Amino acid sequence: MSNTTTMMSAIPTEHRKRLMRIARDVAFPAGTRMFEEGGHADRFWIIRTGSVILDMHVPGRRSPAIETLGHGELVGWSWLFPPYVWQLGAVAQSPVRADEYDALAVRLMCDDDPELGAVVGQWVGRVLAHRLQAARTRLLDLYAPYGSGSGARG
59: exposed, middle or buried (C-beta count within 10 Å: 0-12, 13-18, 19+)? Predict the structure, then answer.
């Protein structure tokens, strides 16, 4: 993932410090399902250690891994956009330590401070654009007759 999508590089220090004040330290053992696609998106995480696999429900098939996330990366973006429903699923690939944020608290902070809201919105938007492209490429690789076509072009 591009370093402009990590919280450290995307959010200026003053705003990041405000957000960090409401973070809660959490841990997930390897194999723990953090959230299920279609569930209520009421929080998000920034990974400190470990890795998380994002997956997607495909009817009649095992949920394919879409992307693997690591240190400094955002887990969950659906909390920012109504109707606040997870668009992907996530499972801890290895033991994970993360900062957890209450979505409502962050949305209220963003409403109270338009500059913070703009920065958070741009950051999550970049993450979302990256994840959409990753999902598209992965699903084409798995299910299209010739994959994503990212190899040689005719």
Answer: exposed
**What fold, for 3-139?**
Jelly Rolls (2.60.120)
15 phi and psi angles, rounded to 5 deg = -75, -40
Residue extents of the structural domains in the chain? 3-139
What tokens appear for 33 in the block? 């399902």
Q: Is 24:30 a contact under the CB 8 Å cutoff?
A: no
pLDDT in single tens digits along all 154 residues of the chain: 445 577 877 898 999 999 999 999 999 999 999 999 999 999 999 999 999 999 988 778 777 788 999 999 999 999 999 999 999 999 999 999 999 999 999 999 999 999 999 999 999 999 998 888 877 887 787 777 776 666 544 4
